[in-house]
Amino acid sequence: MSHIQNSIEGKQLSVKRLTHSYGGQNAISDISFDIAAGEIVALLGPSGCGKSTVLRAIAGLIQPKAGRIVLGDDDLAGVSARARGIGMVFQNYALFPHLTVAENIAYPLACQQVPREERRGRVEEMLSLVRLGGYGNRLPRELSGGQQQRVAVARAIAGRPSLLLLDEPFGALDRALRFDLQVELLHLQKTLGITTLIVTHDQEEAQSVANRLVLMNKGNVEQIDTPMAVYDKPNTLFVNTFIGQTNVLAGTVAQLEPEATLVTLSGGGSLTLPRRLNFTVGSDVAVTFRPEEVRLAAQPGENTLAVSVTVSLPLGPTLVHDLVFEDGTNLRASEVRGPSTTIPQTGSRLFAEIDVSRAHVFPAQPEVSQ
Ligand SMILES: Nc1ncnc2c1ncn2[C@@H]1O[C@H](COP(=O)(O)OP(=O)(O)OP(=O)(O)O)[C@@H](O)[C@H]1O
Ligand SMILES: [Mg+2]
C-alpha cells in the first residue's frame, strides 16, 4: 500500500454560491462550502433537498445556472467532466455488468490512456486496497452487494482523482455491512489523503465518517459544522430536529430578565431559561430539548412538566420513556440504566424535569414555505 500513499494529492474544493434549476424550479440556491485538502465532508439532508444536484454540478455532469467551483487552483467552469480529475460513486450506480471486476476498475484508466502494463498493476493495487484481491476475474453478479460497492469505490479511485464524490455509496446495504464499509472507507480515505465529499441521508453514517457536515434543506445550506457542534449547537429548528432526536414544545416568550427568560408553554406550564433570549416579549417560539436532557421526578419542581408515562422501554444500556404532556404532545426522555433504576408503570403521572441550560429556543415558524 505504501507505494501509492503519496501518489494521490487531495485538493481543496471551494463551492461558491452554486445555484441550479431543472425547468423553472430551483433545486439548489446559493450553496457555498469549502473542503480542505484531504478532508472528508458529508452532505446531509432530506430526500429531494438537492444533494445529488450539488454532486452532479461538481462532477461536471450538469452545468449550474450560477456559481463557481474551484478545485485546487483551477476554476472548473468549462472543464469537461472527464478532465476534472474527480472520482465518483453514484447513487444506485451499478458496475458494468458485462465487464469483470478487473475490467471495471481498469475502465477509467483506459479512458486516461494509462498503458496496459501499468493498468494491470494499478488494478491489483486497487483490489488489495478494497480487500478484494483475487476477485479480478469475477463478474459483478458473482459478488455480494457490499463487494460490488467496494469495486465501485476502487473504480472511482483507480484514476487517482484529487477529489472523491460518493453519492449514498452504501444506501442499499444492510446496517451491519454499511458500518463495516464506512470504517473501511474512512481508513482508505485517510491512507490516500483524498479529499472526499460523501452524500447521505443517514445521519449516523454522516457523523461516523465525516470531519464536518453540510446540512441542507430545500436547496439551501442550513449549517456547516463538526458533527458534535451540529448536535449541540444547531442553528435552526430544522437542524435541531433533523440531527438526533429532540422534543419540541410550542410556547410564548412571557418575560425577559437580564439573565433569564420565561417561556409559557401552549400546553400548560412554563420553563425559565437561564439566559436572556434574543426575542421580544410575546414572540411565539419553539423550545427544544433532547431526551437525555429530561429527568423523571416524582415531585414537581423548577422547570418540570406534568406528564404521564405511555411506555418505558429498556434499550440496551439506556431506558427510554415515551411520555405525554398535558396538551397531548409526545415527549421522550432517556436515561442510562443503573442497578437501582426502576421502570415506571404505564400510565404513571410523573414530572419531567428539563435541563434548561441545554434547551434551545427558535422562532415558531423559522421558514415560511415558498
Ligand atoms: N433531472 C431532473 N429533472 C427535474 N427535476 C429534477 C431532476 N433531478 C432532480 N430534480 C429535482 O431537484 C430536486 C433535488 O433533487 P436531488 O436529486 O438533488 O435531491 P437529493 O437531495 O439527492 O434527494 P435524494 O436523497 O432522494 O437522492 C428535487 O426536487 C428533484 O425532484
Ligand atoms: Mg440524491
From TrEMBL:
Pfam annotation, one family: TOBE_2
Xref: PANTHER family: SPERMIDINE/PUTRESCINE IMPORT ATP-BINDING PROTEIN POTA, SPERMIDINE_PUTRESCINE IMPORT ATP-BINDING PROTEIN POTA
Organism of provenance: Xaviernesmea oryzae
Cross-referenced InterPro entries: AAA+_ATPase, ABC_SmlMolc_Importer, ABC_transporter-like_ATP-bd, ABC_transporter-like_CS, Mo/tungstate-bd_C_term_dom, NA-bd_OB-fold, P-loop_NTPase, Transp-assoc_OB_typ2
Record domain ABC transporter: where: 13-243
SUPFAM superfamilies: MOP-like (SSF50331), P-loop containing nucleoside triphosphate hydrolases (SSF52540)
GO cellular component: a single term: ATP-binding cassette (ABC) transporter complex
GO biological process, one term: quaternary ammonium group transport
Protein's name in the database: Putative spermidine/putrescine transport system ATP-binding protein
